[in-house]
Amino acid sequence: MTSPIVETRQLRLQVGDRVLCDQLNLTAAPGQRLAVLGQNGSGKTTLLHSLLKLCPVDEDRIHINGLPLTQWSRAELATRVGILFQDNHDDMPASVHETVMLGRLPHLRAWRWESADDFRLASHALTIVGLEHMAQRDVSSLSGGERQRLAIASLLTQNPSLYLLDEPSNHLDISFQIKTLKLLTETVQQDGSALIMATHDINLASRFCDQILLLFGDGTYTTGSNTDVLTDDALSRAYGCEIRHVATESGTFYFPAS
Amino acid sequence: MSPFRQYTLLSALTGLLVISIVIALSSGSVSVPVTTIWQQLINPTPGIEQQILWELRLPRALAAFVTGGLLALSGVIMQVLLRNPLADPYILGISGGAAVGALSVILLGVASIWITQAAFAGALLSVFIVFGLAGRQQWSATRLLLTGVVISAGWGAVINVMLTTSTSNNVQSMLFWLMGDLSQSRTDSWHFALLLGGLLLILSQARALNALARGELMAAALGVNVPRLKLILYFSASILTATAVTVAGSVGFVGLVIPHMLRLLGARDHRWLVPCSVILGGSFLLLADSLARTIVAPQQLPVGVLTAMIGVPAFLFILHQGARSS
């Protein structure tokens, strides 16, 4: 059996005094795609940030490639784990090309310049997300959706073995949502990497992921395969409104009933 | 931007630096021909021209270059640290603290002996006050910026009290100090060592700066030790600014505008922006000071007036060109 890329053991997520999720046991093996679902403020982002040491957490309870987070330096961790943030900050000027090249930063040694391979990876990533003709444009001139695609290209350039995606469908139109998630999930399956995505879209989660973590926001959670977790009862309880599903030829779809 | 364009920019700036040095040495109330400058630099022969060059213009040109380089470098750092395009070396109150120190000794009549030390002490005091109030635990850019701006305003009030209660004789020298003036400036080798050391230190962090420009979380996610980087940036920018201020008073505009000019010219990667800023900042202040000495000669203007007079149209021109091409 292949060892998991990420594993949490009895992890507690909290913000201030509020416990969002307690005794969380989670694993993601190579090729696995895990969706994190739950209401606003239920701890989805906190979980993703915890896995990358971006917020205070008990680092002994999180293992990446079998090693506890305490033994990972931030620089080493960034070569294995990459994140797509919910918001991008573009206060300072930068071109599309410069932004996508930032993905190579964790892989470069001090005082070294990017190699031809790094440039190839970056321009390949830009081509995949359809931004290759905008490489010299200033980031501030891009639309919201283009910025999101740029951030995804930057993450692909970073080439991590664990992809953390925080609301990856933000700002994307419906065709790019499908294209992008298809691309990312295929990449994960081909490379033997793993993917954890926090999303508010149950349908995207059920379509592209094979594992679901449903956070109830009161410290409890349920996790397992899509069919085990995505029941009307559990979803209705997690979101605080009645949710029903409809089975069609192209899959199961979820919608709010009230 | 391709490496070719980056090298072209760096070469052009080096050319500009050489031209600025020649102008600074040849122009003034007595103009010295370029050939004579060359002879005097290689093989000094005693005479009036040797005195003018070696005792007046060269020390002043060196002071102008160092001050400009220090301020531009500090400006780059502050803009990334605060992720605010309006940030300049003085935004956190360093120049205010230095000014209160300098003005105090002018008021006490011991300016000729103590002004450098007093300005430096005032600057450091301000650096530690701001850090003590904003920097100890989780310091966000906004918290640091607000604390700095408020402390700056406090120093401004103290400066105004000093100006309004001083004799007119003192007020004259105070105003020159406040506007930035190189006529009394002298540099030592340690000023250059500090500029070079600061340049190398920041160059070693240049890639991390590229990441920090996209936000602290992004930088941390890309493997940057953000708390350590912020400490390095805050204290190096503070010391660079404090040194610049003790050489020439608070010369405005250089630290704000030089980094932006270079970004608009395409040098946004800090591995290029940092060295280019030092060269352009130095050249810019050399040119401004040459004009300050000659424009109403034999009278001299404070160089801080000239930096704005050249900088405003130059910056607006580049901004306009940039807007048209993008």
From TrEMBL, chain A:
Entry's Gene Ontology molecular function annotations: ATP binding; ATP hydrolysis activity
ABC transporter domain segment(s): 6-242
Matching CDD domains: ABC_Iron-Siderophores_B12_Hemin
Keywords on record: ATP-binding, Nucleotide-binding, Translocase, Transport
The name this protein goes by in its record: ABC transporter domain-containing protein
Organism of derivation: marine sediment metagenome
Automatic annotation (TrEMBL), chain B:
Membrane-crossing residue ranges in chain numbering: 61-82, 89-108, 114-133, 145-169, 189-210, 231-258, 270-288, 300-319
Keyword Ribonucleoprotein: no
GO MF terms, alphabetically ordered: transmembrane transporter activity
GO cellular component terms given for this protein: plasma membrane
Entry annotated with the keyword Membrane: yes
Intracellular or extracellular location(s): Cell membrane
InterPro entries found in the cross-reference section: ABC_BtuC-like, ABC_transptr_permease_BtuC
CDD domains for this protein: TM_ABC_iron-siderophores_like
Keyword set, alphabetical order: Cell membrane, Membrane, Transmembrane, Transmembrane helix, Transport
Coiled-coil regions, chain positions: none
Membrane topology category: Multi-pass membrane protein
Family of this protein: Belongs to the binding-protein-dependent transport system permease family. FecCD subfamily.
Protein's name according to its UniProt entry: ABC transporter permease protein
